[in-house]
Amino acid sequence: MSIPITSVVIGPEEEAAVLSVLRSGRLAQGPMVAELERSFAELCGVPHAVAVSNGTVALVAALEALGLQPGDEVITTPFSFAATLNAILESGATVRFADIRDDFTIDPDSVQALVNARTKAILPVHLYGLPADMTALTAIADAAGLAIVEDAAQAHGARVGDRAVGSFGVGCFSMYATKNLQCGEGGLITTSDDAIADRLRLLRNQGMRVRYQYEAPGHNWRLTDLQAAIAVPQVGRLAETTARRASNAARLTAGLADLPGLTTPSVPAGRSHVWHQYTVRIGADAPLSRDDLGKRLDEREIGYGLYYPRLMHHYDCYVGHPQIGTDETPRALRAAEEALSLPVHQHLADDDVDQVIEAVRGAFNA
């Protein structure tokens, strides 16, 4: 693929940090993990960041730390990666699905309609790099005494007003290889709650604070210093990475603005987008289908992504599951049929972005 949907580039800073860990002889969780936690907590404006083995574990750990029980309900969006759903199922809670807004994030009005005596948490997803409306969601949670777990896997450094995502509740971030901040596999959990942070650190280390002194049934959810070494330099470059992605997104929006039936992403007032993905919608009034556009992009060797072609719970393995509600979400269903993501990553040259624009415009005008 001449212009890939994503590109993983490991630079000299990461190489030097990894070599330093290798030479130290300490490969497991150690001082490099501690430095990653410190720098990321500072970035998010919270006192605690707890590193874990991957982003799904971050969600699972956050929900376990909250002490959810069978019969409890968690409200989330159906338009996300299956890790969001799987983590709630693993907690034993029941999943309720709220619909989304046109910006792909969970609709607070739909959330409010689902709140009942069994509701224990709201789990918004900051999708494609755009934060959910945390002002409205926080008001709902506060009024009903609910916890907030933020699925921020795609939104490192995004903000709502003057606050970073991950500071509104328990924030869960992924460092999978294609994320804006990555180390191959890894996760980070942010919180301002001292008790939650303490519980998370206990759970990730087999229930131990001191070796062989078990205080709770736990897990091996630790991150290694080798992985942290890849991520640490990227924290310092995250603002630069985000700015480049935002520049590419602006060029795409300007270049695709007048195509019939194609809707480019917008950023609601008071929220900042970090452009993990640049996702357009191909509506019924477009001169071609989403699949047709994908074929044209394939012909031009331009990568694209369908994130996500079906709602999570519409796959056979989830249909009829006793922990999954059957809530109707027509806007999410329509988004799954219309969304297509174009390359926006920081490694694109201006000419690459121009080629993407030309290919999409050519497909629409063929």
Automatic annotation (TrEMBL):
Its cofactor is pyridoxal 5'-phosphate. The keyword DNA-binding does not apply. The keyword DNA damage does not apply. It comes from the Bacteria. Keywords: Pyridoxal phosphate. InterPro entries: DegT/StrS_aminotransferase, PyrdxlP-dep_Trfase, PyrdxlP-dep_Trfase_major, PyrdxlP-dep_Trfase_small. Pfam families: DegT_DnrJ_EryC1. Belongs to the DegT/DnrJ/EryC1 family. PANTHER family: DTDP-4-AMINO-4,6-DIDEOXYGALACTOSE TRANSAMINASE, TRANSAMINASE. This is dTDP-4-amino-4,6-dideoxygalactose transaminase. The lineage of its organism: Bacteria, Bacillati, Actinomycetota, Actinomycetes, Micromonosporales.
